[in-house]
């Protein structure tokens, strides 16, 4: 979930810098049951008491989501009055690794990027048993990204469907019919038509950050039912799917149809505001921009499902996301599970998270729940978005989210791959590499420098 994309962009760069270090996590969690089967001992069990009691320590990042989760504690205590929640704002990226290695003051629950879960898995409880009653009703992609060797290590939080955001006012004025956009070829045609009317424009966003460019690439790949690695962690960049995506991006570049800028930096914002950049294929969390960063065009923007890569193909893919993990060295992890169960699977909990609250008076509209009963298109948790011209973003996002194909767990070297794949994408957008060269060079470098060194 990405509630504040500007802050989030800076944090993601930090994450990429520590990702390789997570590969060094080799210590095993404690054997808490003596002679009991090791697999069974790693599986968290829910408390058996009818009136569970104790204190739990929950780590979240500081910011708006911390405040949202903090506001749900009173609701949780109405159900579990004897569980005290010690809710701490922590720099998780800087602190979690050493805490897990030393086993000192380990929290009971942690909010963590999906891309980081596999790197910490041996320190975490297998949640297969406690999630059992819910797993069939969780978005398959979110179950898959948290599943390693058949075990589930994260409580899925948000679903971040990719959407096509567009400046409806500018496109209407140019006579471009966005309802005709069903495939990426249609998007290219629409961009060409807009540029004919506005010759100085470069209508489609081309991401200039290596890390976010790779994240967006994976959104496109998710639409096609693939990802950088298979379920066994084996690289699969060398495929027709990735060649198709990179060829599309290279076409946008070569025809001058793209605005090259880092996500929501001043240059990016300026090109959005002046009508030169009118198409933004991105995760739902881009909705933050017209609400907070685009005062001149706020209300002009709308969202639709992503184009498909072929007729009848999926109209969305996953881009980013977070989950909750429970470290095995936490003193009361079984009680922390009750907290997360309430947040994600109790109507009172998920309504308090995504519905109107003190932090988001109209509801939290930068993601949707990963729990499908909570993501019912007919029962919106957040209200229509004024900055999107009063559009019912809930309808668009939940319908898009339902189309995201299943995926695989994210390999622990994913963030580190941005040094190779992310940078090679940028070299392609500089005109220095072909799509085929990106695939070949990145595959070789990732295999040699990341996978073979695990």
Multimerization state: single chain
Q: What is the CA-CA span between the terminal residues?
A: 28 Å
Number of alpha- plus pi-helical segments = 18
Helical content band: 40-55%
Q: What general form does the structure show?
A: globular
- Low-confidence runs (pLDDT<50, min 5 residues)? 1-38
Strand order of the largest sheet: 2-1-3-13-6
Which structural class fits the helix and strand makeup? alpha/beta
Description:
The protein is of the alpha/beta class. Helix content is 41%, strand content 13%. It is globular, with a radius of gyration of 22 Å. The two termini are 28 Å apart. 52% of the residues are buried.
Which helices and strands, and how do they pair?
Layout: H1 5-22, H2 38-41, E1 54-60, H3 64-79, E2 83-89, H4 92-102, E3 109-113, H5 114-120, H6 128-131, H7 140-145, E4 147-148, E5 151-152, E6 155-156, E7 158-159, E8 162-167, H8 168-174, H9 184-197, E9 204-207, H10 210-223, H11 240-254, E10 258-261, H12 266-273, E11 279-283, H13 288-292, E12 301-305, E13 322-325, H14 333-345, H15 347-354, E14 368-369, H16 393-401, H17 421-429, H18 435-451
Please tag this protein with its features:
14 strands, five-stranded mixed beta sheet, single chain, alpha/beta
């Amino acid at each position: 979930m990405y509630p504040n994309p500007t802050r989030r962009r800076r944090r993601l760069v930090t994450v990429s810098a520590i990702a390789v270090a997570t590969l060094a996590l080799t210590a095993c969690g404690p054997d808490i049951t003596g002679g009991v089967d090791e697999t069974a001992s790693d599986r968290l069990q829910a408390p058996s008491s009818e009136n569970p009691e104790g204190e739990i320590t929950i780590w979240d990042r500081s910011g708006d989501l911390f405040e949202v989760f903090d506001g749900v504690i009173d609701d949780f205590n109405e159900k579990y009055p004897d569980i005290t929640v010690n809710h701490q704002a922590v720099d998780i990226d800087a602190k979690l690794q050493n805490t897990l290695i030393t086993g000192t003051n380990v929290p009971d629950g942690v909010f963590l990027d999906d891309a980081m879960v596999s790197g910490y898995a041996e320190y975490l409880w297998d949640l297969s048993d406690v999630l059992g009653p819910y797993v069939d009703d969780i978005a398959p992609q979110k179950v898959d990204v948290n599943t390693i060797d058949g075990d589930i290590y994260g409580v899925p939080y948000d679903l971040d469907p990719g959407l096509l955001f567009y400046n409806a006012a500018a496109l209407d004025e140019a006579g471009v019919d966005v309802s005709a956009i069903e495939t990426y070829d249609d998007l290219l045609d629409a961009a060409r038509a807009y540029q004919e009317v506005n010759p100085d424009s470069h209508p489609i966003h081309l991401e200039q950050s290596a890390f976010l460019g790779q994240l967006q690439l994976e959104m496109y790949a998710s639409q096609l039912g693939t990802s950088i690695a298979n379920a066994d962690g084996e690289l699969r960049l060398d495929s027709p799917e990735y060649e198709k995506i990179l060829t599309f991006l290279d076409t946008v570049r070569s025809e001058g149809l793209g605005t090259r800028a880092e996500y929501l930096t001043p240059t990016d914002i300026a090109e959005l505001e002046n009508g030169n950049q009118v198409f933004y294929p991105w995760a739902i969390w881009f909705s933050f921009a017209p609400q907070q960063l685009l005062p001149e065009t706020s209300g002009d923007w709308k969202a639709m499902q992503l184009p498909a890569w072929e007729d009848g193909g999926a109209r969305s893919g996953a881009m980013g996301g977070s989950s909750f993990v429970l470290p095995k060295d936490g003193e009361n992890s079984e009680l922390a599970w009750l907290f997360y169960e309430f947040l994600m699977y109790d109507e009172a909990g998920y309504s308090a998270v995504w519905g109107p609250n003190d932090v988001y008076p109209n509801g939290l509209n930068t993601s949707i729940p990963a729990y499908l009963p909570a993501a019912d298109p007919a029962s919106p948790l957040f209200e229509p978005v004024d900055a999107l011209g009063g559009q019912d973003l809930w309808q668009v996002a939940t319908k898009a989210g339902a189309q995201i194909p299943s995926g695989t767990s994210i390999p622990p070297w994913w963030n580190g791959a941005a040094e190779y794949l992310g940078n090679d994408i940028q070299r392609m957008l500089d005109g220095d590499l072909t799509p085929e060269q990106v695939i070949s060079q990145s595959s070789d470098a990732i295999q040699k420098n990341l996978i073979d060194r695990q």
